[in-house]
Structure formats: C-alpha cells, structure tokens
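Table 4 source record.
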Amino acid sequence: MYIGLFSLCMNIMLLALPIYSLQVLDRVMSSHSMSTLFWLTFVIVGLLIFYGLFNAIKTAILNKIGEWMELNVAPELLSNAVTRSSLALFTSGSQYYRDLGAVKSFVTGGGISTLFDAPWAIIFLLVVYLINPVLGFVTLFGCFALLGLALLTELTTKKPLDLSSKSSIRVNTIAETATRNAEMIEAMGMMRNIIDDWKQHNQRSLDLQAIAANRSNVLYSTSRVFRMVMQVAITGFGAWLALDNQMTMGGMIASSILAARALAPFESAIGVWKSWVVARESYHRLDKSFSHISTLRGSIDLPAPRGVVSVDQLMYRPATSDKPIIKGIGFEIKPGESVGIIGPSAAGKSTLAKLLIGILPPSHGTVRLDGADIFKWNREHLGKHVGYMPQDVELFSGTIKDNIARMDKTAPIEKVIEAARKAHVHDMILQLPRGYETEYSFGNINLSPGQRQRIGMAIALYGNPRYIVLDEPNANLDGDGERALVQTMQYIKSQGITLVVVAHRPSIVGFVDKILAMRGGLVEAFGPREEVLKRYITPPAPAQAPQLVAGAAQ
C-alpha cells in the first residue's frame, strides 16, 4: 500500500519536467522574464529533491519487506517443511527457500516498481491528450501495442517456464536424495547412473529456459524498437502540428517527454516478465503449502496426560495411494501399561506408531490421549509430556547436550545427565572427545548408528514424559546396547509410564504387559503377552532317537 502511494507521488512529480519545458519554451523565451525562469527552476529543483527523497524511502521500504520475509516468513517455511515431511507429504525445504528468494528478489528489485508504475501511465497519457488530442491517440496506440506484446510474452513463455520450474525442482530433488544416499552410491558404483539421471532432467530444464528466454528476448527487442519508433512518430507528429500552428514548440517537447514516460512501464514490463512469472509461480507454491498446513494441525492446550490411549476405528491412507495402510483397528492402553507391536514387514507397524504419537492425521477414526484427539493437541505443549524415537535417529547439528535437551540451549545440564542416565548412555557419552559438549554434524562418522540410537533414547526420556513410543529401538544396537535398552525399558515400566514399542526381535518385548500383532494393516491378535506369543512361537521338534537316525542312514 505504501509503495503504491509513493509511486503515485513520484509519478505526479515527474510531470514537473515536461511542464517545466513547456513553460520555459512558451513563456520564458517569449517574455524574456528572468524572474519567471528563476522561480520555475527553483520549484522544479525542489520537486526533484522530493522525488529523490521519496525514491529513497520507497527503496528502504522494499528492503525492509525483504528483511521481514527473512525474519518472519523463512522460519514459518522451515516449520511448514518439517510439518509436511512429518505428514508424509512431498516437501523440499531447499525448494521453499528458492521460492522465497524468487519472490524476495522480485519485490526488492525493479520488478515490483515496474508493476506499480504501469497504472500511472494513464496520468501521462491524459496530459498528452490535453496538450493535443492527436498526440494523445498516437500515444494510446503505442500503449496498447506494447500491452499486446506483453500479453504475447505471457502466452509464449508461460508454459516453458512452468515446465522448466518443475524440471528444476526434480533436479534439486535428485541432488538432495543423492547426498543423503552417498554411501550406497559409492559402495555400489551408482554414480554414473545418478549423474546421467540428473543431467537428463537438468538438460530439459535448461532447454525449456532457453526457449522461454529466446522468445522473451525477441519480444523485448521488438518492444524496444517499437517504443523508439513511437518516440520518433510522436516527435514527428508534434513538429507537423507545430508547423501547422496547432500547438507550440513547448507543447511538442513536453508531449515527447510525457509519451516516453507513458510507454516506459510497458516496455519495462516485458523485460521483467520472466522474473514476474517465476515469482508468481513461487508465490502460488508457497501460498498453497501454507493454506494446506493451516487446516491440519490443532492448537489444543490440555493438562499433562496420565497416559490413557484409546484407538477407535483407525484408518490411514497416504495421499499418494488408494490403498489404506491401517484398516479400521481399535484397542485401548491403560496408564502405565507397556505394549509391544509385532508383525511381518509392511504390516503397518511404523505407520501405527506415527499415528499413536500424533504425527500422521488419521484418514478415519481417532487416536485419543486422555480422551483428546492427539493429532489436534498443540505439538509444543504435548511434546513436554511425550517421548518418541523413530527407526532412523539422525541428530541435529549441535552438541550432544543440546540434542538430548531437544535443542533447548537453556536446558540445565543436570536434566540432560538425568535423561542420559535413565537411558544408560551416560558412560558412553563421557567416552566421547568432549563428553556432552561434543559437536555433532550431519555425516559425522564418529557416531555410529547404534550410538545415535542410544542417544535418541535419552532424547525420548528427557523431561519425564508420561507416554513414550519407540519404533524399533534396537534396530542398530549391539549386545551392550540392547542390554542397556532392556534396562531402560524396565525403568520406564517401573515408573508407570505408558509405553508402546515396535519390535522385530522378541528380546525387547519379553517383559511388556501386552502384545499387539499386526498383519496387512489389521490387528491379528491383542492381549496379554503370554497368550499372544503362544500363537507365534513354534515349539521345537523332538529329537530323533539314535537308532532311528542310524537306520535312516543305512
């Protein structure tokens, strides 16, 4: 709004230049009045000083808008990317930042100023018409012609730019995926295939960009030549009208200046059209992602939970699939109970774990914690009372202390050590180069997957949670780590904390209260541990007598 206001004032002030030329040529030169020349010059210089001041203020506002984007929108984009990723929606945090950069570049650069200046061309056109209607119509014809070239630029470049943008996103996704899977690529010699795939999509993106750029350049060059031809036409018509005594020489010069100002925004618009299209598409992607996320997460703040978990007619179908992974299951967990979830691969165990902790939104049914829909619970508030450890634990860049404290830089070391002791990982941390102050970064080979998993258990236990969900917590553990895990889970059970653990190996479900067996997204069995395990443990076959074996050999 303020940029529009300043643009209006600045464009009105630009009227001073042709008016000055008109008055000097038509009045000062004929009257030889030095005082008139002095005061006209004094006024025009004052207006130009204000024009420069307003331009500086407008630029400062645009820069502040860019700064506001970085300080306010960028953190929301990070939160949005994390939320979308947790909801199993396609997301690329780096793409969000590129989109924000495109919008910011257009706003703080010359693009937005061109759009704001374009409507005020009507003012200059009107003044030209008032000076002489013939020149007004000639200028109007030029404006419509340049507008047509701008629309033609939109029609001829929109599709290749859209396709190029999609290809560019695919290129970036391939690069990000390759970086995350670097070990697999190097180990199995996949580099050439990955690079060939990347080059194929990158070449397509470059080809589409070249098509759009060539079309835009041709039309922009055409518009520049046409504007200069229009400038010549206006000057020529003006001279002809002046010779025919239908207007003065001052009017001719003023009309030429005003016509140039009226046509300039349309020519500039064609020049910045590519950046406008990119910024527009980036804005739509950002706006779409925000509008989708805002309706998903809840904001309910409730008292600390006791740990009652009830599941009713729970179904979950990913947005990218027609088949549900979880198919209408229901059960209840009492406060302090421990439940082990077992079943074959692709049974839906990890998906159920994410639903039980409130990461994924159910397609149907509910997961309630103390009677409240856990997905609608305010995550920041709920996080103080729950613990969760995924299958693959990846720590954040920072110290071990910061990671255990869930990246709370102000957390007291006593609470961090308490959580580490509960997870039986305190001694292991002390063996690190700087103990709790050891810095971790992505790809740090000094921490094995098993060590990260044990630290992940300490993260889950930080802050005395009342409800904990562990997804295959022993996937990367050795013998010592698994013994520490069993001790930790026994401590959780002794404290009356509600515990859900997904397991493939039976060693960590040997002491839980109940077993939930899954197959094909359905609950195959749910009940006391001994009763359920009897159905899945086959008794060993009796040994054959020696004489029978000998007889068979014969």
